[in-house]
Amino acid sequence: MAHIDLGLDEKAHPGINGPMLFRPETAKPLNQLAETLLRAPHPTLTPGERELIAAYVSGLNDCTFCCSSHSAFAAAQLPAGMHLVDQVRADVGTAPVSVKLRALLRIAAAVQRSGREVTTELVDAARAEGATDLEIHDTVLIAAAFCMFNRYVDGLGTWAPQDPEAYARAAEHIVANGYGAS
Predict the structure, then answer these.
(1) What is the structure's pLDDT at 182?
(2) Which of 52, 83, 115, 175 is the most buried (most CB within 10 A)?
């Protein structure tokens, strides 16, 4: 049970869904942020890659609900599916992703530890692998936003399903309808 009474069945509205229903006036801009960061048109990063960044950071933060959700959302949009997501989460250094995405994931990991851990060397390494300033910017913002989302979910002690199928069903909905859609 969440640390506060959300006034709803948490199993019907797990993770971030319960707090979003509890405070719809904050849910709207939070959903708009997620939609913009993860699904809006982007010149180079696919929605699956952006979801992978969110899943990776959420895993580093040990946020079960967000990591499971965004892993499923990434898997649903990446050709290699959950196998790739699991490989990235297990060892980004050996996962079969592009060298550019690996460099961006390293920046995301630095943001997760502290924004000040993003060094000129990390940024230069990403640029050397072909990352643009827009990609670096968006990676930092996705990582920072997911640190906030993770702390929101875990700070309220929300319930997270253990069944991976629950996240796969949510992925179908998000991929088809986006964030904030009923």
Answers:
(1) 65
(2) 52
